[in-house]
Amino acid sequence: MFRGRSKHNLDAKGRLAIPTRFREVLEERNENSLVLTNHHGCLWAYVKSDWLAIEKKAMELPEFDDNVNIYLRYFISGAKECPLKQNRITIPADLREIAGLNREVVLVGNLKRFEIWDKDRWEEVFQMAKDRFPMASQSLREFGI
Description:
Blueprint: E1 5-9, E2 15-17, H1 20-28, E3 33-39, E4 42-47, H2 48-59, H3 66-76, E5 80-83, E6 88-90, H4 93-99, E7 104-110, E8 113-118, H5 119-139
Antiparallel strand pairs: 1-7, 2-6, 3-4, 3-5, 4-8, 7-8
């Protein structure tokens, strides 16, 4: 599982070093690439097998539903496989642009996936999460948390 947060720098070619604890997840699952896609203000990174499960579910969605088409056009079509080379991935330029990634980024573990945020944007989003956490955590009681 992907856990924790860490700050990193992208180089001029968009290469990102994957932290050891995240690489260990890839090694345990015998994966040598990640699938990245755009999400709300950041990128989501999945191991390939988990991404394939998402695609399989997406293929079963009703193709004439407007919300499904929005989901497919934005989330699914943004997916790019990024091979792990020398403990780094190269984030494609179009995904860097969509997510507003500059040199400084933050990787945020979310169990089955991790997020890649521009550092400044992450600080804003994290502050909102911190402020809303007391109320949000109470609402999770119905899920046994």
